[in-house]
Q: What sequence folds into this?
């Protein structure tokens, strides 16, 4: 198949197949139509360098109303927190306050250029400095960098810091990062990106880290360990301090994956537990919207040992203030920084939203957040545990895992349960993670859901368990009430139609 | 202010169902001595109070809404049609997550597919991913692709010094743990100098188009030379420039990356922005990040789904192409809506307006005594002015006396460019603003050291 052919839409619609839900934007409009008006040139026109110009620009030709209707109709094909329950484990799909959107759009934030003289952007710097302080306080850590653009980038920065720390101490032989087999996929991927080796250790029968196995792999080649608290099963490992001691005992550093911080606010500080470095996901714990897959924000917090290695620049006080004048803030590069992980200062718009959220909640409010996140999760767990197999039946944090299968029901999988849940107007839990639980359903309700919503979810789950026995095809064929039925992902990977436009022929 | 809906009765009933008598009992597994530490944070505020406090902080920033701005250097004050923000504020888009469940995410998936298609059209490439964090990390991930493509057997990446200094820094941060070496950008190497550095160890050569100084370099013979050496050619591009200038595909690029902020995304003090990444189809399996493909549902209806998932971290773990997970989904949507509204005519028009206004400004400033504009190469919307005084001094004066946010001080990154200012002009700058800038630069000595007049 030629290249030009491959990028054409090759999904031929059978005559009997239903029409697309919404045309592609390229299928709308007409030649010469425009969706925007721009002013006339108010300066003399300069000659254009004709030999450098392109002859063709293959973008849509649509009116403004075409654009509005197209994207509004597309939006209506989505499930979102604003439309319904979204108990996607490990993702903390809590309500995203509208106030935060307004704050991020204030002209003083939205229209400030990142390279302006810091003297003229003291409001933005004050906000960043305060957020650094707040995130340090919540974690008990010494210093924070707001630069990482997402949790995965925070992890990457954290592991690069651990690597740099050992190199600075003349311990280049420390190249191994220990990762439990229940870890998020980002943990091993991050380790590999940083040029270190992953050592995976198994979980014990309770889903906790197997301490004997941990001791076996601990030695002088260990750079550190990455672990999620509470772990990815939603459970707080009671022996966390022993784990920390074992790693520190062999000269390694402890990294905490902060994906589950919604279970930790005001409950325990990672630094008190002995962690050296962690990242936050502001888009999970601190309510910044997930945006259909980003932008996120993944600040890293570190103790004294790693503070000089933080990615930068970070915000610092250049001149102390007093009663009459505020302090003067500026940017600084930590002394032994691993460098920049992105251009400019971080996903600032997300920092504004997280600031608004923490300011609104305050210390007690954050503690209440965790209390209710954990209350909701345990409530649902308690009410489902007689019907859905729970590999680890005990008090959970803000999420819990159950199996989406039954010994007495053949051929029903977690995926079928998930798809059927859509028919009840709810987003499914996370499927098939953590990997150590067969047919896993990871359920995280978050604190912003009411008891009524939790009850509706419980009822739907109980009903589905019944349907699995009485009418399993209802599950296999599900979803029935969504804009599209089950989607053929094998065909997508086979035909690889990734772009709907032809490749322009190179000019002669 | 709280976003928690529970009543006392709810809490009581739920605790009873769990079989505990208090909230605190939910946390029995946390070591007792460390449990419930005091958080030294302010008390919570009402919505009204949060809003007032944050409006105060916002008001302490000068911004492009109140000042004439001639600062670019990787972040630009371009026009954003109102429709963009209105679509971004659809809760169905911004409060959804990564479209893992295609039946509930066709809106996000189709929008990403359309975005990928527009980025292919703009860059002249065959595939584009759903985005990276920003232009700088897109460049770093291009190096990751090159490294994977040659399976670590080629270790040299040649960078033009005309690439944004922060992008080059980020590429180095990303690859500090592996064997890649970044060379070429320490001095003032020209395109022919970079070509001379090509050898059998070169995995990729990267140039900027336009370069950091706003200029369009002469790329004739470049792609041929890079490909003769068996290496990949990567271009870091300004997407607005591509509304006017030849696509990187036409120039022979294998990978095209860049900062998508000019495509409908506000300056927002540096983020969130949009890293775009496009390449040839033959490299598709080495791309990091999410890619959406077309398919059908069980009824045969056209539908979209994330595809080539086995490249990703949640499946491949340490063998994944990258650890990227969340990308900049909503920013890709912004660019998609922007490119739809601007369309083939609007984007070209924005590019032309920027070009004409920048050239008008350059001509006027070049005519001033003591200033000279580098006009040795064609340029787009930014140009370099050698000034009679330190740039920092001039910028302070422009700001204090004229209400103008001046250009970028190139001496910060390039020691041989002290007193050189990089000025950006877009369709947002009026002739009056440009004339005021010229007037202000004409005789700074008359004002510097005098009273604040703005």
A:
């Amino acid at each position: 198949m030629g290249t030009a052919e491959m990028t054409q839409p090759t999904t031929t619609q059978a005559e009997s197949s239903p029409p697309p839900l919404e045309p592609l934007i390229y299928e709308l409009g007409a030649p010469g139509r425009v969706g925007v008006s721009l002013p006339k040139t108010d300066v003399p026109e300069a000659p254009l360098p004709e030999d450098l110009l392109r002859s063709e620009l293959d973008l849509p030709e649509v009116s403004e109303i075409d654009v509005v209707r197209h994207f509004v109709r597309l939006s209506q094909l989505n499930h979102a927190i604003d439309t319904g329950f979204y108990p996607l484990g490990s993702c903390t799909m809590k309500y995203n306050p509208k106030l935060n959107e307004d704050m991020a759009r204030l002209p003083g934030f939205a229209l400030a250029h990142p390279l302006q003289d810091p003297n003229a952007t003291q409001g933005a710097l004050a906000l960043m400095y305060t957020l650094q302080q707040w995130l340090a306080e919540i974690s008990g850590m010494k210093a924070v960098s707001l630069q990482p653009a997402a949790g995965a980038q925070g992890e990457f920065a954290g592991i690069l810091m651990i690597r740099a720390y050992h190199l600075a101490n003349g311990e280049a032989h420390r190249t191994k990062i220990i990762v439990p087999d229940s870890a998020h996929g980002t943990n091993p991927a991050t380790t590999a990106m940083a040029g270190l080796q992953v050592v995976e250790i198994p979980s014990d029968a309770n889903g906790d880290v197997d301490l004997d196995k941990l001791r076996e792999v601990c030695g002088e080649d260990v750079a550190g360990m990455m672990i999620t608290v509470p772990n990815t099963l939603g459970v707080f490992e009671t022996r966390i301090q022993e784990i920390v001691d074992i790693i520190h005992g062999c000269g390694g550093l402890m990294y905490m994956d902060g994906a589950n911080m919604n279970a930790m606010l005001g409950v325990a500080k990672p630094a008190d537990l002995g962690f050296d470095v962690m990242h936050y996901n502001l888009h999970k714990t601190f309510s910044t919207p997930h945006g259909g897959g980003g932008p996120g924000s993944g600040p890293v917090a570190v103790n004294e040992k790693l503070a000089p290695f933080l990615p930068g620049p970070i915000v610092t006080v250049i001149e102390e203030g007093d009663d009459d004048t505020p302090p003067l803030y500026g940017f600084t590069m930590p002394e032994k920084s691993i460098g920049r992980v992105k251009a400019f200062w971080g996903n600032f718009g997300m920092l504004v939203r997280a600031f608004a959220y923490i300011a609104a909640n305050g210390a007690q409010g954050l503690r209440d957040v965790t209390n209710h996140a954990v209350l909701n999760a345990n409530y649902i767990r308690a009410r489902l545990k007689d019907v859905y197999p729970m590999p680890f039946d005990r008090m959970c944090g803000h999420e819990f895992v159950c199996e989406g299968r039954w010994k007495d029901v053949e051929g029903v999988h977690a995926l079928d349960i998930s798809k059927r849940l859509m028919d009840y107007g709810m987003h499914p839990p996370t499927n098939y993670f953590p990997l150590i639980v067969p047919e896993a359903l990871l359920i995280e309700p978050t604190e912003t859901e009411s008891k009524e919503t939790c009850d509706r979810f419980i009822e739907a789950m109980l009903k589905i368990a019944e349907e699995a026995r009485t009418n399993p095809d209802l599950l296999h064929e599900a979803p029935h009430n969504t804009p599209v039925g089950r989607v053929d992902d094998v065909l997508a990977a086979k035909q690889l139609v990734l772009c709907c436009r032809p490749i322009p022929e190179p000019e002669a | 202010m709280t976003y928690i809906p529970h009543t006392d009765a709810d809490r009581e009933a739920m605790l009873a169902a769990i079989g505990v008598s208090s909230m605190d009992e939910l946390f029995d597994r946390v070591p007792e001595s460390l449990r419930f530490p005091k958080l030294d944070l302010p008390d919570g505020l009402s919505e009204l109070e949060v809003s007032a406090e944050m409006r105060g902080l916002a008001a302490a920033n000068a911004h492009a809404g109140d000042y004439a701005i001639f600062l670019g250097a990787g972040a630009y004050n371009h026009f954003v049609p109102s429709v963009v923000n209105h679509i971004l504020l659809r809760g169905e888009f911004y409060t959804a997550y990564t479209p893992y469940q295609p039946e509930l995410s066709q809106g996000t998936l189709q929008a990403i597919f359309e975005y990928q298609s527009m980025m292919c059209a703009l860059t002249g490439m065959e595939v584009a991913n759903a985005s990276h964090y920003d232009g700088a990390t897109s460049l770093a991930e291009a190096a990751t692709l090159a490294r994977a493509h040659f399976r670590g057997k080629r270790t040299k990446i040649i960078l033009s010094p005309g690439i944004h200094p922060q992008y080059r820094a980020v590429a180095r941060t990303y690859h500090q743990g592996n064997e890649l070496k970044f060379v070429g950008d320490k001095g003032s190497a020209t395109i022919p100098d970079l070509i001379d550095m090509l050898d059998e160890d070169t995995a990729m050569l990267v140039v900027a188009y336009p370069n950091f100084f706003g200029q369009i370099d002469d790329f004739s013979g470049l792609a041929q030379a890079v490909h003769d050496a068996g290496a990949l050619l990567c271009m870091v591009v300004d997407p607005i420039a591509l509304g006017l200038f030849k696509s990187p595909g036409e120039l022979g690029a294998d990978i095209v990356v860049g900062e998508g902020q000019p495509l409908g995304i506000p300056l927002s003090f540096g983020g969130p922005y949009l890293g775009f990444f496009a390449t040839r189809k033959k490299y598709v399996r080495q791309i990091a990040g999410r890619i959406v493909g077309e398919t059908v549902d069980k009824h045969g209806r056209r539908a979209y789904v994330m595809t080539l998932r086995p490249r990703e971290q949640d499946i491949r773990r340490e063998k994944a192409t990258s650890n990227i997970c969340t990308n900049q989904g909503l920013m890709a949507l912004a660019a998609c809506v922007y490119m739809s509204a601007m369309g083939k005519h609007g984007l070209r028009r924005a590019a032309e307006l920027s070009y004409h206004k920048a050239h008008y400004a350059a001509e006027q400033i070049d005519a001033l005594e003591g200033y000279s504009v580098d006009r040795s190469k064609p340029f787009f919307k930014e140009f370099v002015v050698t000034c009679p005084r330190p740039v920092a001094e001039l910028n302070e004066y422009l700001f204090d006396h004229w209400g103008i946010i001046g250009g970028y001080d190139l001496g910060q990154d390039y020691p041989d460019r002290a007193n050189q200012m990089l000025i950006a002009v877009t369709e947002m700058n009026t002739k009056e603003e440009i004339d005021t800038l010229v007037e202000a630069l004409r005789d700074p000595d008359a004002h510097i050291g005098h009273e604040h007049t703005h």
Notes: Chain B touches chain A through 206 residues (CB under 8 Å). Chain B has a mean pLDDT of 95.
